[in-house]
Input
Amino acid sequence: MTTTSRPRRPRTPLAFAALAGSAVLAVAALTPAVIASAAPGAAPAASSPAQAAQGEHRVVHRDARRDAIRFDTESEKKQPAPRNRTSDITRTVVDHQAEQLVVKTRVRELGRSGYRLMIGEIQTPDGRRFDLMVDYSKRPIGEAFSLTPSGSGDEAECVGATWSAKRSTKQVTATIPRSCLGDPAWVKVGLGMVAAPRNLRTSMGDDSRLSGRIGDKHLKLGPRQPHA
Output
């Protein structure tokens, strides 16, 4: 398991941009590597007793399997990628605790080669949105953890934030102090996974609350969750 608390690394010319607001993976001036795309034949998201109703501080959501998307950078073609396991989300947990927000994303297989990102979007009662990025690659570009107010471009200071990637549970976890979000009364959270090989010829993506596609502007948010 790898755990860290906001390592400060200089940005490189080949800086990744994980934009939770549009669920797009981009590198420098390259065109988006994951673009909204319907995947014909993708299974609908499974309903489950484990998924909590709106108003609970902890929500467990089970995502459809085999609904990741593949984007070819050269041809710009999008297509379903049912065999992709490392970006295919199977389960998410969002726990709005009294002092911190904990988000967990589980995939069919946790790989860390190439570029690997967990991205998130967090909405608070005052209308603000925060973009979350956890770069859990073996060789991250820039900071492994970032929290950015949507549209600002300036990373928020978030002392005490941590993340981990655990192969045995196929899960990536981020813990964010509520103070970094302005101590909101409630949150709505969307989570996704994005991956690409080092040659950047293709990329894969999955929005945990959309079956076979990624939102064209935002990740799909979950229900309103008050803090515990």
Q: What stands out?
A: Confidence is low (pLDDT under 50) at residues 2-53. The longest strand covers residues 186-196. The chain has one domain: 56-210+219-226. The two ends are 28 Å apart (CA to CA).
